[in-house]
Amino acid sequence: MEKVSILKNLLPMFGNTPLVKVIFKYKGEVKTIYAKYESINFSGSIKDRIAFAIMKNAYKNNLIKPEQPIVEVTSGNTGIAFTALARALGHEVKIIMPDWLSKERYDIIELYGGKVEKVSAAQGGFIGALRIAERYAQQEHYFYPDQFSNQTNVHAHESSTGPEILIQLLKQNLKPELFVAGVGTGGTVMGVSNYLKKMGIPCLCHPLEPSNSPTMSTGGKKIGSHRIQGVSDEFIPEITKLDTLESIISVDDGDSIIMAQKLNKIGLSVGISSGANFIGTLKKMEELGKNTTAVTIFCDNSFKYLSTALCKEEPVKEGFISTDVELLEFSFIR
Ligand code: PMP
């Protein structure tokens, strides 16, 4: 089959995810948070949206040859998304990633037929991985999507995630007033923010990061180890324009883990960054102190975290807010 026909065929598996309406009690008050339920995408995460957009753009503009191998740097989901799609299109894939991420991530990529090259902290971690990928792109002519600097990443969310959120809320006679998303590349928060601005919707769009790794808050100076895999990858990505967004929300990774565990316990399979996004959204809602239509992202499901702290008992620390959340019910909006 022609590559463009393959992409056309696969299209129904990308985006158009439901919005899940989560109703809960927090300190005795009933509240609602809406979240895009992204695990039903082709390879199980929000990053399928950008893999599809980047591949489609590459074919449309002759940026890739049919037999050209692909190299990408990732904390997991982008690597999984590119490998699945690229294999369906018949490309070889090399994924460069730090060696401290969940075992499931490496295994899934290899099961799809991708080759993983792990980079230790001593070899430079994420920054080291970027240098290795650049070398493959320049010296061995790999196609390098470069999600951290590729504007198509932002456009993917501007043209899909953003419009879907608006349409789904309009069906409920609502408009988004608050949007929070953890920053890996920042593609999600930038794309949704750009779209809502373009549509004249006054929605506060906040980027989020782990309090144990305040990289954005310190202008790129401070990097810490944290357990919210998929966000805060050791530098501020080129496509994240903090001056166009609202303030940075910080969340504790332990608090995020407990929140993700609670969501799983009511039947919503989510990973740790989804717990972080929920906590961050709730924190901001509390700060705003009024009834706000608040939206966030459930980026992926629990399956990539079975070997991590998500499946272990997490100690409660002072200041956690997840412990005061009582989840009541959820429903899906198409
Ligand atoms: N959560 C998870 C689990 C992810 O894999 C990613 C992407 N790395 C994000 C959140 C952040 O998304 P974005 O790259 O669009 O900022």
Q: What's the quaternary structure here?
A: single chain
The percent range for strand residues is 15-25%
Given the structure, what is the number of helices? Answer: 9
Quickly give the CATH architecture of the largest domain: 3-Layer(aba) Sandwich
What bound compounds does this protein have? 4'-deoxy-4'-aminopyridoxal-5'-phosphate
Shape assignment: globular
Extract low-pLDDT stretches. none
What is the β-strand count?
10
Distance between the termini: 32 Å
Rg from alpha-carbon coordinates: 19 Å
The number of domains is: 2
Written account of the structure:
The strands form 2 sheets. The protein has a 7-stranded mixed beta sheet with strand order 8-7-6-9-2-1-10. A hairpin with a 2-residue loop joins strand 1 and strand 2. It is built from 9 helices and 10 strands. The protein has helices at 3-10, 47-60, 77-89, 103-112, 125-139, 151-170, 187-198, 253-265, 272-288, and strands at 19-26, 29-37, 70-73, 93-98, 115-119, 178-182, 204-210, 249-251, 294-298, 325-333. It folds into 2 domains: 3-40 and 151-333, Rossmann fold; 47-139, Rossmann fold. The chain is α/β, with parallel strands linked by helices and 334 residues long. Helix 8 packs across helix 9. 37% of the residues lie in helices and 18% in strands. The chain binds 4'-deoxy-4'-aminopyridoxal-5'-phosphate. 4'-deoxy-4'-aminopyridoxal-5'-phosphate is lined by residues 45, 47, 75-78, 182-188, 230-231, 271, 273, 299-300.
